[in-house]
Amino acid sequence: MPKNEFLEDFKIHLKSEKNFSTHTIRAYCADVYTFLLWIGELNPLEIEPEKFSEYIRFISQINYTKTTIARKIASIRAFYKFLYQEELIEYNPIDSIPIPKQNKTLPNFLHEEEVENILRGIKIDTPAGYRNRIILELLWVTGMRISELSSLNYENLNLEQNEIRVFGKGAKERIVLIPDKTKKGLTDYIENVSPLICKTSQNSTSPLFINYNGYRLQNQSIRKALKECLKNINFTKRVTPHVFRHSFATRMLECGADLRIVQELLGHSSIKNTQIYTHVSIQRLKDVYETSHPYK
């Protein structure tokens, strides 16, 4: 079987069985494709562990971050796990190859007053402005990923219970909650603002957030709207939609929320992914202590 057929079958596996996002599938397949090019005429079914170690040394000499190298190894490991499951190889030769330790970096986040400053800076005198305002507010109060928010349909809403049903990574379903203030703004958008953007049907499978052509608002458009808002209010800190998610998690923990609850609200499969926000909170506590304690 040609190498490309292995890769195509792997791509189908990631999509149909693993429910990976399009972005993740693209990254994994690109990593595997690069590796297959590197081994040249060698049969990928006959690779020994030493060859993987050689490849790791090779990519380590390129100016990749530890995070990128770890992802490339994870991609190839997943590929060979797939080959093993398909009984195309007798054992997974990369299973014993360790992934380099990543540098622990604390996520960027915004203080509550900074978020409020950004939200106040959005001009809501146009339908698109009002839509952008409620979008960023939802990112802040729910901790949703931008892809989760842009993919919302009307059927995902249960506004009577202040609930939104979200499908996260791996098509994993969860419920996020919204406060009454946000519910009112979202209701106003649905009833009064969305029809001004474009008069389209609002049935269960219709996209919640649309552009002036009536199509689903894409992630790129949301990022552009945020960038324009930050520029208008001269906000110098680097902010992406994902920073709102970090800010939500940090704020919840600072206010005493249980770590497991925050994990559930964020849709993290492992508590380890949520624990980094405890480090953020502790670091902020230290900063306040050092600047405020009278005994210096």
What does this structure look like?
This protein is mostly helical. It has two domains: 3-85, DNA polymerase, domain 1; 112-291, Intergrase catalytic core (hpI Integrase, Chain A, Orthogonal Bundle). Helices cover 57% and strands 4% of the residues. The chain has twelve helices and three strands; from the N terminus they run αααααααβββααααα. The protein has helices at 3-16, 22-39, 49-60, 66-85, 112-120, 127-142, 146-150, 180-197, 219-232, 241-254, 259-266, 271-292; strands at residues 157-158, 163-167, 173-177. Helix 11 crosses helix 12. It starts with a helix and ends with a helix.
Task: Jot down its keywords.
single chain; 296 residues; mainly alpha; DNA polymerase, domain 1; hpI Integrase, Chain A; 2 domains; three-stranded antiparallel β-sheet; 12 helices; 3 strands; 57% helix
List strands and helices in order, with pairings:
Layout: H1 3-16, H2 22-39, H3 49-60, H4 66-85, H5 112-120, H6 127-142, H7 146-150, E1 157-158, E2 163-167, E3 173-177, H8 180-197, H9 219-232, H10 241-254, H11 259-266, H12 271-292
Antiparallel strand pairs: 1-2, 2-3
Helix pairs in contact: 1-2, 2-4, 6-8, 6-10, 10-12, 11-12
